[in-house]
Amino acid sequence: MKNNRKICFMLLFSCCLLLAPLTASALAMNDAISIAGQQRMLSQRMVKAYALVGQHTMLSVSAVKQMDDTIRQFDRNLEQLVLFAETPKEKKVIGKISRLWFAYRVSAKQSALLHFFDRRVPG
Fold it and tell me: Each residue of 17-38: pLDDT tens digit?
């Protein structure tokens, strides 16, 4: 049940990123749309890695590495999206997304590490 909540949260979070209004020049808007699409893909990758580790079908070391790499890329992309926000409304939406992400980020890293150490510690 707890895992289902995390998966639902990630899917909703992805939708928020795609629907977040961003304004900028035409070229910058295309970049923002591309980055938002990457964010959706990255959030799906995090959920996949989490699910595979939970089912014990993915090596813990590679899952933790994939989770860390994905989180790092998500952070970089989010920083770029913050720069695109110009109006107070856009800044408010991106601020909300950032707060949601940083709360989830802690949970995602902890989950990956806990599964890693659960598999490594004998007994």
Answer: 555 544 444 458 888 889 989 9
